[in-house]
Design goal:
The complex is a heterodimer of chains A (275) and B (429).
Chain A: H1 9-39, H2 57-64, H3 66-97, H4 105-112, H5 114-117, H6 120-134, H7 140-164, H8 169-176, H9 181-210, H10 213-218, H11 226-236, H12 241-270
Helix pairs in contact in A: 1-12, 2-3, 2-12, 3-7, 3-9, 3-11, 7-9, 8-9, 9-12
Chain B: H1 2-6, H2 21-60, H3 67-71, H4 73-79, H5 90-101, H6 108-117, H7 123-133, H8 142-149, H9 156-164, H10 172-177, E1 180-182, E2 188-190, H11 198-229, H12 232-247, H13 250-260, H14 266-273, H15 276-283, H16 296-319, H17 325-332, H18 337-365, H19 369-374, H20 382-391, H21 396-420
Antiparallel strand pairs in B: 1-2
Helix pairs in contact in B: 4-5, 6-7, 11-12, 11-16, 11-18, 12-16, 13-16, 16-18, 17-18, 18-21, 20-21
The chains are: A mainly alpha (275), B mainly alpha (429).
């Protein structure tokens, strides 16, 4: 974009100065993430350039060493269980909340999204003590329940947002055509709010998949997740496998980002909001 | 028609089955409300049971402190008569010996020692040693014998501390958070300087959070402006630069910074190549390569990087709604570009600035992972001290009291946020 001809010299300088500044800030945002990626192909065990040679040994370690594959599997197991629970509980709660004149809606909503607000260290420590007394600290169930509590606010918020622009007369239309309430839900409501549900589910998945603080307190060695493996790896001795893990996770989150964006566009199209 | 004629003609509107319309509506609304409640109840119950109760129970620990009352029951009773002036009478010492000889559980004496150690340095080992040695005492008088074992028992202050801690509820932990304590006579006084660390921690947490918030605003505002004013096509490409880090997990970004900030790592190389190291050396600020890993600088850089999208995106979405006509109008009225920007454009972006900065500030207060991995021991924030109170000291009272302060600060700020912006409209991506 060229500078308009009526700009004064001062305006031109300001115009270019802002651009250079913005360029530097964008570089600051992206560079740390990009800079780590090539290091994961380093043939040696240090973290600086230039690299003496290239190798896939850290990826081999990441994908074939039991320590990392076990952690990856555990993360997927916990995240999938969390996603199913959180999406189910969150969606039905959102359906209830978005009915007309729900009593004490603001207060109920505040309770439901409180796990998103409370600093995670407080949640982790509180749940650790309480779950230990209940005998579920250090168990798979305990970690899944804790992650579900942390993840449901995201489902509630996304599904409630989708429902806020949902045309409720469609439900009445379905009912007046003789459909039973569950038929109306599965045939009319669900297809329309599905994009919202899926992006809520993705948020839930990511929340659990990336979570480290609660796992740090609540998990026993059997529930060693990928973030926990990375965290303790960094604390004890940094192995370059961590750069491979980071690279894989960045690619993974990029895929997630694209999916959510596609869903958002689709959802807006379905609800008739022009973009 | 036949049905309508059967209904009394009293001017009341009625539903098809003859009930007054008002009543029918109320009934329908009631059943609707019950259905809505039935849908919300499972999640509500789940959150209360798995999340709210655990947190409330933990916070309760900040005032609930039964270690002394439970493990020295007879001593505490005997001390009630004591006026606190001279050493307690023989009965109190006898009671102490009874309590120490018959501990309720195996680790009762250790717990007691740990609790008293919070107030009197070195008390842990003294209590444990006394607990071991009183077993040899056969008969009284106990007073001299106990003082013989350790002269800390001949100190009025020791007994005053025990008496003060004898209630199962204590203000001790919460007072300690503001570097205060109850004096011997029960009045509230400042903790001696060598033991006062908490105000430091709170100020450090606030200072780092404020600095990071300010840095993200300074860096983010021009980017948001650029994103909001350039044509859609360029903007969506630039947006990737903001959203990719936003979507990369906090741990991965912290990992990246940990690797880059290593001694002799990529960031140090970057400083060398760009000549920043040279300039710093020239100015005499550092000698040789600057220390990066485990420093305050690294913590702030990493936190700023992680929080930048959180500040930037709300500002961007507000700027997106500002019509360019305002600026055009202001300029056509003769304002200089800078003046117009300052007086016309910027005031309209303030809601976004408030939302972004408030969110970043709140999130910064609770940071744990990043300072723990990138920062040094003197860069840990409140969350880090909560974690270490549990992991290394097993001091639940302290962890809970720090938790109370962090939670209250967070809740107040979220209340403000909710009044300003509305929490369920929080930007998720």
């Amino acid at each position: 974009m060229a500078v308009p001809s009526y700009f004064t010299t001062g305006e031109k300088v300001a115009h270019y100065a802002v651009r250079v500044f913005v360029g530097l800030v964008l570089l600051f945002l992206i560079a740390p993430i990009i800079a780590v990626m090539p290091l994961s192909f380093n043939s040696e065990t240090f973290f600086s350039y230039p690299m003496p040679g290239y190798s896939l040994r850290w990826y081999e370690d990441f994908f074939f060493n039991e320590r990392w594959t076990g952690a990856l599997k555990m993360s997927f197991l916990i995240a999938i269980a969390t996603t199913i629970l959180a999406t189910f509980l969150g969606t039905i709660a959102a359906l209830g909340l978005s009915r007309a004149n729900f009593p004490a809606r603001a207060s109920v909503m505040a309770v439901l999204i409180s796990p998103m607000i409370v600093p995670v260290i407080i949640s982790a420590v509180g749940m650790f003590k309480f779950y230990a007394q209940m005998g579920i600290a250090g168990t798979l169930i305990g970690v899944i329940l804790a992650h579900t509590a942390l993840a449901t606010p995201f489902v509630v918020i996304t599904v409630t947002a989708t429902l806020s622009s949902f045309d409720k007369t469609l439900m009445r239309a379905g009912a007046s055509c003789g459909a039973a309430p569950h038929t109306v839900f599965f045939k009319v409501v669900m297809p329309l709010i599905l994009p919202g549900m899926i992006s809520g589910a993705l948020f839930a998945f990511v929340t659990s998949f990336d979570e480290v603080v609660v796992v740090l307190f609540l998990a026993s060695p059997e529930q060693r997740t990928l973030p926990l493996q990375m965290f303790s790896g960094i604390r004890e001795m940094i192995s370059p496998t961590i750069t491979a893990a980071a690279t894989v996770l960045v690619l993974f989150s990029t895929a997630m980002l694209v999916t959510v964006e596609v869903l958002r566009r689709r959802s807006e199209k379905l609800r008739g909001i022009a973009t | 028609m036949a049905m309508a004629q059967a209904l009394p003609n009293d001017g009341v509107m009625r539903a098809a089955d003859g009930t007054p319309l008002k009543e029918a509506l109320a009934r329908a609304q009631r059943s609707d409300r019950l259905k809505a409640l039935a849908l919300v109840t499972p999640l509500f119950a789940f959150i209360v049971l798995s999340f709210l109760i655990p947190i409330l129970v933990m916070l309760y620990n900040s005032v609930y402190d039964p270690d002394v009352a439970e493990n020295l029951p007879t001593t505490v009773q005997a001390l009630q008569q004591w006026d606190g002036k001279d050493l307690p009478p023989e009965e109190v010492f006898a009671a102490l010996v009874t309590d120490l000889k018959n501990p309720k559980t195996d680790n009762a004496v250790a717990l007691l020692g740990k609790r008293l150690n919070y107030e009197i340095s070195g008390m842990r080992s003294k209590v444990v040693a006394t607990g071991r040695k009183v077993k040899a005492l056969e008969a009284g008088p106990y007073k001299e014998a106990v003082i013989e074992i350790d002269k800390v028992w001949g100190n009025t202050e020791t007994w005053a501390t025990i008496k003060r801690s004898s209630s199962v509820y204590t203000p001790f932990y919460l007072l300690a958070m503001v570097d205060m304590r109850q004096g011997v006579d029960g009045s509230i006084e400042a903790v001696p300087a060598d033991r006062s660390i908490y105000i430091d921690i709170l100020i450090r947490t606030l200072a780092i959070s404020l600095f990071v918030t300010f840095a993200t605003l300074v860096l983010g505002y021009p980017v948001a402006y650029m994103l909001a004013t350039t044509p859609q096509k360029t903007a969506s490409i630039l947006m990737i630069f903001v959203l990719l880090p936003f979507w990369t997990s906090l741990l991965v970004r912290t990992t990246a910074w940990t690797i880059l900030m290593q001694d002799g790592g990529v960031f140090a190389q970057f400083l060398n190549i760009t000549g920043i190291t040279w300039v710093l050396n020239l100015l005499g600020l550092v000698e040789g390569a600057p220390q990066l890993f485990k420093t305050r600088f690294a913590t702030i850089v990493a936190m700023t990087h992680i929080q930048l999208p959180f500040t930037l995106l709300p500002i961007y979405s507000v700027m997106k709604t500002i019509s360019p006509n305002y600026m055009r109008a202001a300029k056509s009225l003769g304002g200089t570009p800078f003046y117009c920007f300052l007086r016309v454009y910027m005031p309209q972006t303030l809601p976004g600035v408030a939302a972004g900065c408030l969110l970043t500030f709140i999130l910064c207060l609770g940071y744990y992972i990043t300072p723990a991995l990138v920062g040094g021991p003197t860069d840990q924030m409140v969350s880090g001290f909560i974690a270490s109170a549990i992991n290394t000291e097993n001091n639940w009272g302290k962890a809970s009291a720090l938790g109370v302060i962090l939670l209250i600060a967070t809740l107040i700020l979220y209340y403000v946020y909710n009044r300003l912006i509305g929490i369920d409209r929080m930007k998720l991506g």
